[in-house]
Design goal:
Radius of gyration: 20 Å
Number of domains: 1
CATH topology: Metallo-beta-lactamase, Chain A
Shape: globular
CATH superfamily: Ribonuclease Z/Hydroxyacylglutathione hydrolase-like
CATH architecture: 4-Layer Sandwich
Distance between the termini: 47 Å
Structural class: alpha/beta
């Protein structure tokens, strides 16, 4: 499979990828990612979609029109298997179900999160966000903006998948591979009869997925540690062709997984060195502001600072598990400092 450069959404077109697999680019309005690549897999009882795209009228028209271009009616869709619950992947799954009567499937861990999200009203969500941000030492202005953000929750799934389960895809073998990190229930999907791996956001050709902890100060999980282990697991599948949810398709998913692991190990080393230079414990917000992002901290919008803090928290937690960092619980905020060797 030939590696290609990333192209803007305006240059994207639905594609026949051969072997009964097609791709449809679905826009994400107002998001720098540009689009989600939704995949359709042929079956004698109607296509099964891998992801569905963002819940927006333009995205719906792109999905429906793209499938029609490829000779498929959205009403014939047998089901949607969602790689993870984020809105650019699961957002339109409910609309597809309404049109087709098909099922929605996702990993059981993300299904539990979807139920939790549906159970929170707007006030509870805002209170959760506000408390989390204050404990992280966030600026008051950032607290107000980030706490008010709440995307529409995704549709509840009809079916829950566990690691190793086969998706209901007659005539094909599409197996769920649990790859937690980006979300607790993220899955890749191994099309075993074609040596292809639908990687969702787990392994992307040029960028790396967001790995965060929410709330930031949880000490009972290690999402980055889970992610690194999941990269190793994908690597063990061998040099499969990767069909990711963003950017472009590429060969040898194992090689790219190794590159991403190296990226995070380097980031962990730099963060540990940064903390070792400081005598006093620092809040999460202070640490995040000192780290390197794709633009200066002061230029990040509040919502992006919130995500950066989540990623900083995940890296700090992995360093804590490895014994390089300890947390100091204060009255106003949790702080972190290096452990003297």
């Amino acid at each position: 499979m030939r590696k290609t450069r990333r192209r803007p959404y305006a240059e994207q077109r639905p594609q026949d990828l051969g072997g009964g697999v097609w791709s449809v680019p679905v826009p994400i309005p107002g998001n720098p990612l540009g689009y989600t690549l939704v995949y359709a897999i042929e079956s004698p009882q109607g296509p099964v979609l891998v992801d569905a795209g963002w819940n927006h009228p333009d995205a719906w028209e792109a999905l429906r029109g793209g499938l029609a271009t490829l000779g498929m009616d959205v009403a014939s869709v047998r089901g949607v298997v969602v790689t993870h619950f984020h809105p650019d992947h699961a957002g339109l799954a409910g609309r597809v179900r309404e049109e087709s009567g098909g099922w929605i499937a996702m990993h059981e861990a993300d299904a539990a999160l979807v139920r939790l999200i549906h159970g929170l009203d707007a006030g509870e969500h805002e209170a959760f966000q506000t408390d989390m941000l204050k404990r992280a030492g966030a600026d008051p202005g950032d607290v107000r903006v980030v706490a008010a953000e709440r995307p529409l929750p995704p549709a509840r799934p009809d079916r829950e998948l566990a690691d190793g389960d086969l998706v209901d895809l007659p005539g094909r073998k599409l197996r769920a591979v649990h790859t937690p990190g980006h979300t607790p229930g993220h899955i890749c999907l191994h099309l075993e009869d074609a040596d292809r791996l639908f990687t969702g956001d787990h392994v992307l050709p040029d960028i790396t997925p967001h790995i965060g902890i929410y709330p930031y100060d949880r000490d009972d999980v290690d999402p980055l540690g889970d992610f690194l282990a999941s990269l190793d697991r994908v690597g063990e599948l061998g040099p499969l062709d990767a069909l990711p949810a963003h950017e472009w398709m590429f060969p040898d998913v194992a090689a790219r997984a190794a590159e991403i692991r190296h990226h995070h190990e380097d980031k962990l080393d730099r963060l540990a060195a940064l903390l070792a230079e400081r005598a006093e414990p620092l809040t999460l917000w202070e640490i995040a502001a000192m780290m390197t992002w794709n633009r200066p901290w002061e230029d990040l919008a509040p919502i992006l600072r919130g995500m950066a803090a989540g990623e900083a928290a995940a890296h700090l937690r992995t360093l804590e598990v490895r014994g390089s960092v300890r947390r100091v619980r204060g009255v106003d905020a949790v702080r972190f400092q290096a452990v003297e060797s």
